[in-house]
Design a protein that fits this description.
Elements: E1 2-9, E2 17-20, E3 25-29, H1 36-48, H2 57-60, E4 67-75, E5 83-91, E6 96-101, E7 104-105, H3 109-112, E8 118-121, H4 126-130, H5 133-147, H6 151-170, H7 175-179, H8 182-215, E9 220-225, H9 236-249, H10 251-257, E10 268-273, H11 281-284, H12 287-309, E11 314-318, H13 326-338, E12 344-348, E13 362-367, E14 370-372
Helix pairs in contact: 5-6, 6-8, 8-9, 8-12, 8-13
The protein binds adenosine-5'-triphosphate (ATP) and magnesium ion (MG).
Residues 36-37, 318-319 line the site of magnesium ion.
């Protein structure tokens, strides 16, 4: 998949511009604070309709303006084949977001999600490894929402029921009133857990391979640690049963705490090195090891998309080599090339950072939000 055209209007500091993007991609070079990350943020917005940096939509509208708009043309085949136009706009005053595909407005965002397939690599990704369980759950939820049919629906429904159940617990409602939410919670929760577990177990091998190829040290692995004692349960029904039992066991504690203490909203993805002592990367990994593990997670995300689409996603690299040593940066690029990367859009503050194989990419410059092609 590639992005062939991009039109921007009042997105962050980017002003109004229309760009044609070369099939192999582009390297965007510019000093700090000129708008490089904003550019990638605008592109990624067309995939998930959210900021990859966790910014609220209001923050994406240029200062002093009311509306931003981003329109991109994604192509899935060679030449002019398989073009789809994705447009997103947000109005600050009315807090209204509009998304359309080929000019037809999508009533539900979920329908337009993932029409553009891109993976973004950014220095902040290290938080996927260093940060709390929430960061890794969010990563899983995004990957699965985009790639696993039905996942987003199960997750949204789970969250909705969980909110009701927690309100009932907090409000000191009767045991029966609380338990009324359980069948739905258990069903949806089990669907979420089953999909997450399946993805983690199916991906840990690739994660380990990517890690070892970049780091050239011990392999790494990822495991899903459920807050529900699963005892080997894999199928949705079996997980649902285990979840039901866990809710019963936690009944008194949940009442006391006024919240639901078990379930996928409390689950964890653990990243460890396969050394003798199974070193947990979050607690003991070096900066470089964590960054490498984060890169490996993104590479697995790209692989998941590639397997779904049968073609490579766009690769967005936001100044990612700045903090990796020379050897690791080189090996990341080798791994990416080996996977048959498609279009690459990368940013760097200095010409010298546009390294190695990427020498061949067309250079664009950016200054105060204006891109010179
Ligand atoms: P670095 O190399 O430091 O990462 P960058 O080129 O990636 O820099 P960006 O994060 O893309 O920089 O852009 C930052 C600039 O965008 C800041 O100067 C900031 O003031 C400006 N900016 C952020 N949000 C808005 C907005 N809503 N409206 C106008 N300008 C904004
Ligand atoms: Mg930046």
């Amino acid at each position: 998949m590639r992005l062939s055209a991009l039109a921007l209007r009042q997105f962050r500091n980017l002003g109004s511009q229309e760009l044609e993007i070369p099939p192999e991609g582009v390297a965007l070079v510019g000093e700090n604070a000129q708008g490089k990350s904003n550019f990638l943020e605008a592109i990624y917005y067309l995939e998930t309709f959210r900021s990859f940096r966790g910014a609220r939509d209001e923050q994406l509208v240029s200062f002093g303006q009311d509306v931003f708009r981003v329109v991109g043309t994604a192509r899935s085949g060679p030449g002019e084949n398989g073009a789809v136009e994705i447009a997103a706009a947000f109005e600050r005053r009315g807090k209204r977001k509009k998304v359309s595909i080929d000019g037809k407005e999508s009533e539900r965002l979920a329908d337009a999600l993932g029409c553009l397939a891109a993976v973004i690599f950014s220095p902040a990704d290290v938080e996927l490894v260093s940060g709390g369980p929430k960061e890794r759950r969010r990563f899983l939820d995004v990957v699965l929402s985009l790639n696993e049919p039905g996942y987003l629906g199960s997750l949204q429904e789970y969250k909705r029921i969980l909110t009701h159940r927690n309100a009932a617990l907090k409000g000191g409602e009767s045991g029966t009133a609380v338990a009324a939410w359980d069948p739905g919670l258990v069903r949806r929760g089990a669907e979420v857990v089953a999909a997450r577990k399946r993805w983690i177990e199916g991906s840990t091998g690739a994660f380990g391979d990517y890690y070892v190829r970049v780091a050239q040290e011990a392999r790494a692995k990822m495991t899903y640690r459920s807050s529900v004692p699963l005892a080997g349960a894999e199928a949705v029904d079996a997980i649902a049963e285990a979840f039901r039992d866990a809710l019963v066991d936690a009944r008194d504690r949940d009442r006391r705490l006024g919240t639901t203490s078990v379930g996928p909203h409390r689950d964890e993805v653990v990243l460890t090195l396969e050394t003798e002592d199974g070193l947990d990367l979050r607690d003991y990994g070096s900066g470089g090891q964590r960054r490498t593990a984060a890169l490996a997670l993104r590479l697995v995300e790209a692989k998941t998309i590639r397997e779904r689409l049968g073609s490579a996603p766009l690769i967005l690299l936001d100044d990612v080599f700045a903090e990796l040593d020379e050897g690791r940066s080189e090996r990341v690029l080798t791994v990416m090339d080996g996977e048959g990367t498609g279009q690459v859009l990368l940013t760097a503050p200095k010409e010298a950072d546009v390294r190695l194989r990427r020498e061949s990419l067309v250079r664009w410059r950016i200054r105060e939000g204006r891109i010179c092609t």
